[in-house]
Amino acid sequence: MVAHMTLPTRRQFLQTGAAVSACALMATHRGLASPFGLPLGLELYSVRDELPKDYAGTLKKVAALGYREVEAAGFYGHSAAEVKAAMADAGLHCVSAHYSMDLLSRTLDEIIAFHKVLGAEYILCSYPGHKIKPAAGGEHTFSLEDWRWNAEQFNRFGAKVKAAGFRFGYHNHTPEFVVVAGVTPYDELMKLTDPALVTFEMDCGWVMVGGGDPVALLHKYPNRISLLHVKDFQPDVTPPHAAQLGHGRIDYGPIFKAAKKGAVKHYFVEQEQFDIPWQEALKIDADYLKAFKA
Questions:
Q1: Nearest residue to 184 via CA among 210, 202, 158
Q2: For the segment 121-132, what is each residue's pLDDT rounded down to a tens digit?
Q3: How many CB atoms lie within 10 A of CB 126?
């Protein structure tokens, strides 16, 4: 026997649909942080001590703090399929991953194959290399020739990565702002890399420690910087020691205001040291960004 079912009127259907859409929109907004209206991201280097002990469980804890996107800094022996499943189970999207110059030079084909399974869009170089590797215990500064060689490698990597359907990028630390022969390496990398092949992930904290100005760089290169690292450092502490966002020395107001006018598509909290339990610290970071008004 089939029970009689009353079909909804058009008005009831529309009202129900509007309510569902509103709920979905509210849920989406809860995962967004106000400075950019972008999903809140975390660089997983922040939890590098936890991931080897419980990879899937740590990802779920990260998601529970409000993060929706992540950037990988190693996969701890897991296959691309295993990482993809763990990310999906936690409700996270892996946007990008960091690799050393050495790994990129030796295993780029394998990295690209990994990303094809994982689905991450960006393959990033995490630190520059030397044209001629220094001897053990030797000088590890970078010459202008080294920086120009790095730019050549980035263009080469970028062409291959782009052909595979991904984007290649470079993440700075502090050496990019040590003037060499009258040249600022960060500007030289911008000048010598092809914008169609190489994008940049600007680490705002390391720019400032290195003597650069994130606001000026966002204005100078509005279409070259597509990812940001957001971190803070304790005031008047040398060497730099991490602080929770809003508890350190960096004023992110002008930085976020400049970033909103540029081409930033993703941003990631990165806290490399903790003086309180890591979940408490990363929640403070997340809450700071969710409440931020740029």
A1: 210
A2: 999 999 999 999
A3: 19
Strand duo 266-269 + 225-230: pairing? parallel
What's the chain's length in residues?
A: 294
Question: Which of helix, strand or coil describes residue 105?
Answer: helix
- CB-CB contact of 226 with 196 (8 Å): no
Backbone angles phi, psi at 94, to 5 degrees: -85, 110
Residues 6 or more apart in contact with residue 65 via CB below 8 angstroms: 279, 282, 283, 286
Please state whether beta strands 167-171 and 198-203 pair in parallel, antiparallel, or not at all (unpaired): parallel
Of all helices (H) and strands (E), which one includes residue 58?
helix 55-64
- pLDDT value at position 37? 87
- The tokens describing 257, both together, are 């205001």
Confidence of residue 35 (pLDDT cuts 50, 70, 90): confident
What are 122's strand-pairing partners?
96, 167
Report helix, strand or coil for 180: strand
Distances (CA, A) of 224 to 26, 99, 212: 32, 20, 16
pLDDT digits (tens, 9 = 90+) for 145-198: 999 999 999 999 999 999 999 999 999 999 999 999 999 999 999 999 999 999
Residue 37: what are its φ and ψ, rounded to 5°? Answer: 70, 25
Architecture of domain 40-291: Alpha-Beta Barrel (3.20)
Task: Give the span between the Cα atoms of 121 and 115, in whole angstroms.
Answer: 8
Rounded Cα gap, residues 157 and 263, in angstroms: 22
Task: Return the domain boundaries, the chain.
Answer: 40-291
Report the candidate in 54, 162, 147 with the shortest Cα–Cα distance to residue 108.
Answer: 162
Give 177-192 pLDDT, tens digit per residue: 999 999 999 999 999 9
